[in-house]
Amino acid sequence: MDHELNITLTLGPFHFKISHKNHITPSLHDGTRNHHHHHHTKLHRKTSSLQTAATIASHASYAASRVSSRLSQHLRTLSLQSSRAMATTSSTNMPIEAPWKKQFQEHLSKMESPEFVFSSLHPAEKGSPVPYVPRARYCIHRAFWAELPENKHNTAPMNARNYASDMPTFTTDVRMSKTFEIFNTSPGHADRDSLIQGSGGGGPCEAVYWVKESMVQWRFKGDAFVIAPDIEGEGEESSGVRTVKSELGKRMRILKEDGIEEWSWKRELTGHFGNISPGMRGTFQAPPPGQPVDKPFDDKKLKLGEKVEDLEHPVARENFRVVVIRPHEVESVDLSDPKKSRRQVYKVICDFLMQVACATGVTQRNVWTEEQDLILNMLVLLQ
């Protein structure tokens, strides 16, 4: 005979469901027992089940209260806070600087050229046993988003340093395959060029930096978003623009409130265009990348090997894009000493914990934690 017990407990934002199943094998002599004895056996079983239920409920309540208490304490220690859109950001409602960033910037400053390998996923050919295949190429690290460095050669109007972030950026041409890949593997699954002309994306990616001068490899795992000329303008915002501002805004922190209402996404985009050399700007008015050299092109609109000085050059700006990598995991591998090789992994705390942090009333949030610390803390929570 099976007895099943289900208990549901609700403690604040936490819900626990405990199931207990007890199997009782009837005796071979049950049929010979008198009615009184059978009734006594049923009563004994019922009492036993009630005692079991009470015991389980007691343990469940105690365990749940410990989990709730420890989780609340853990979240407060990590200084979490719920996600927020940039438009509603305040100095007490923002992420703090990533714990890996300072060391990464120190290593980056030692590189003669801040090159890294950017990997994305490309649709596989028809008949392939897998839907996607990897694609990798070298790119140039330009800056962290909203932290464009001063450049005496950059004549573009610049935003004040109101924001900072932990999101690396690079520039690209909308006609390059990586742009399509970022959109195609995103939740929107764009499958044609007409759907990738504006801001948006969110497809998975990896970026790997090898800092030979420090003998350290850095790996960023996350998703990539594309910023296009439509990021600001008249009329209703597209869903892609709203997604970019919302998702990237969650990881932007305020450095100063003064003049923050003047900060502009479009100005930041133009600043990136001005930050590259005139020769590099000229590549954005060249024929489409990958086009056969013997294929004719519109030579009145497209030019090869020319410099662009105009920061609002219509053709170059039409093709120019900034890609922002939003990392969910950052890994550093230190190979400087073979006897002390170390790998550190930092992970963004999941949205669930951020939502719980909101319920606890925390006013600052650290969205990053080291993997080892996270594992240890979770083991404590489950004890």
TrEMBL record:
Top-level taxon: Eukaryota
Compositional bias (Basic residues): 34-47
Region (Disordered): 29-48
Record GO terms (molecular function): FMN binding
InterPro entries: Pyridox_Oxase_Alr4036_FMN-bd (IPR024624), Split_barrel_FMN-bd (IPR012349)
Name of the protein described by the UniProt record: Pyridoxamine 5'-phosphate oxidase Alr4036 family FMN-binding domain-containing protein
Organism: Pseudocercospora musae
Domain (Pyridoxamine 5'-phosphate oxidase Alr4036 family FMN-binding): residue spans on this chain: 98-227
